[in-house]
Write a structure and sequence with these properties.
four-stranded mixed sheet, 16 helices, alpha/beta
Length: 495
């Protein structure tokens, strides 16, 4: 007969690091502290110049937070495997021996599936997946270890692999088989909707009164302050948005005349106060009413700077053959009006000194965006030129002239794509009786078109009356919005 207890203990010791067996469960605070190198490598604030990657990391961090919270809930049995994607910055902790592992922007994409059952193994798995050191966990002074490691106990010099009959006889789970099954698991659209449709409907119904309240508050404030629109830069929940509008409403009651200086503007709730590069009034959600009031008082000076900025754009355009200087929020870091003016001013002065010549209006109809990167100029697939402020201007002239025809062709295709995207969104909304169909900013028109085409081939009664968001992941948002990846899978899930 087998001596089951010693064998089982011996096999587990072989699989896990020796210090793991004598550690107590991590607390939530200790887990956050242990994951600091990870958060430092993936924090969205470090991806300001890369909005798509920033959006992916923001969404993945939200899902990771939910996973970690569920692990700490008393009495939980098991969690569904959660697939996450992160863009990891190149830091001192994760140097790469192979340069091709990183993009020219200094980050790489990492994808892994969480299927762990405790905080410590989850933390170690995340760090290992991102090629980050876990030494600080083993050597930290946070009392992770509740018992001293016994000296003299050694792990075997070679791995132990039990015969399949061992697991059949004992009833224990084969860890290799579990890992294999998890690696093959791939969520499909229909199975995910089957499992999450009822939960989404419940959350959506619960959010309906707040949604009506949000619409009412927004309409009242837009009318009272004569605003063009009110928007949110981040995906805050409905309750959070209502709270922000209530706060703005109280300020309007106290100082209506000052707030009406924003007449005709679009107001955006975001991370910091000021005026954006496109002329939107930004209200920092962490700022107090005093800061908001000061911002509204300064709006006339912002309007003056905005007029100067537009003149500067026209002067640059004139020097570059009529090409239009634009600012695209999806492809550029979030800049204040002052920051963007400074960027344009540097580029304009360089143009004046170099005196490169273009035939007047020869590039009319083309578009360019300025950025502070030090890379060479490039042509985006949507037709606009990406121009670094400090690029070589002689080379820039040759680059623009030789790619002007391709730029016009790309812009033509972009317009056709926009029309097709709009038609497919309308068709999908009508077919599935959706209340709303939208996409995250990080989803391109090409991805949206492909997604909608495939959706129209399906029969999905679960979607009736829902708010559907096309994203990079599956999720039911707190207010009932359904998020599905643009490249969703259907049918049998295999790796």
């Amino acid at each position: 007969m087998f001596c089951l207890r010693p064998l089982t203990r011996f096999s587990v010791e072989r699989i896990l690091p020796h210090w793991f067996h004598y550690s107590r469960a991590l607390s939530g605070a200790e887990a956050i502290n242990a994951l600091r190198p990870f958060y430092f490598a993936v924090h969205p604030d470090f991806f300001g110049k890369h909005p798509r990657e920033r959006e992916v990391n923001e969404n993945s961090l939200k899902r990771l937070s939910v996973y970690l919270e569920n692990l700490q809930k008393p009495g939980f049995k098991s969690l569904k495997p959660t697939q996450l994607t992160f863009y990891v910055r190149e830091t001192d902790q994760n140097p790469s021996d192979s340069p091709e592992a990183f993009s020219t922007s200094g980050f790489r994409a990492v994808q892994f599936t969480l299927h762990t059952r405790d905080l410590l193994s989850t933390v170690l798995y995340i760090l290992n997946s991102c090629n980050l050191s876990a030494k600080h966990i083993q050597s930290s002074n946070t009392n992770v270890y509740s018992q001293p490691i016994r000296e003299g106990k050694r792990t075997p010099s070679r791995p132990i692999k039990w015969d399949k009959s061992y697991y059949s006889f004992t009833g224990f789970k084969d860890p290799d088989e579990d890992l294999y099954q998890v690696s093959r698991m791939e969520t499909t659209l229909t199975s995910w909707l089957d499992n999450n449709g009822k939960s989404a409907i419940k959350k959506l119904n619960n959010s309906l009164p707040l949604r009506k309240e949000l619409d009412r508050l927004k309409d009242e404030l837009c009318h009272l302050l004569e605003l063009s629109d009110i928007r949110w830069q981040r995906g805050w929940g409905i309750a959070h948005r209502c709270s922000q509008l209530h706060s703005l409403g109280r300020l309007a009651q106290q100082n209506l005349e000052t707030l009406q200086k924003a007449k005709g503007c679009t107001l955006v709730f975001t991370d910091r106060s000021g005026m954006s590069a496109v002329g939107h009034v930004m209200l920092g959600t962490m700022d107090v009413h005093h800061h908001w009031t000061k911002l509204f008082e300064r709006l006339p000076s912002y309007f003056d700077l905005q007029r100067k900025l537009m003149i500067l754009e026209d002067q640059i355009s004139s020097l570059l053959g009529g090409i239009q200087v634009i600012y695209i929020e999806e492809f550029q870091p979030v800049l204040t009006l002052e920051e963007y003016y400074s960027l344009l001013d540097v580029f304009y002065n360089r143009l004046l000194k170099t005196r490169i010549s273009f035939h007047p209006q020869s590039l009319r109809g083309l578009e360019m965006i300025l950025n502070s990167d030090r890379y060479a100029p490039s042509l985006h697939k949507l037709g606009h030129f990406n121009i670094p402020v400090l690029c070589d201007l002689v080379s820039l002239q040759w680059f623009i002239c030789t790619r002007a025809h391709q730029a016009r062709e790309n812009m033509r295709k972009k317009e056709e794509l926009k029309v097709l995207e709009h038609e497919l969104i309308q068709a999908s909304t009508k077919k599935f009786s959706l209340e709303k169909l939208y996409k995250e900013p990080s989803i391109s028109s090409i991805q949206m078109v492909e997604c909608c085409k495939r959706l129209l081939e399906q029969s999905l009664p679960y979607l009736q009356g829902m708010h559907l968001c096309i994203s990079h992941f599956y999720s039911v948002m707190q207010d009932g919005d359904l998020c599905i990846p643009w490249n969703w899978k259907n049918g049998e899930a295999t790796k």
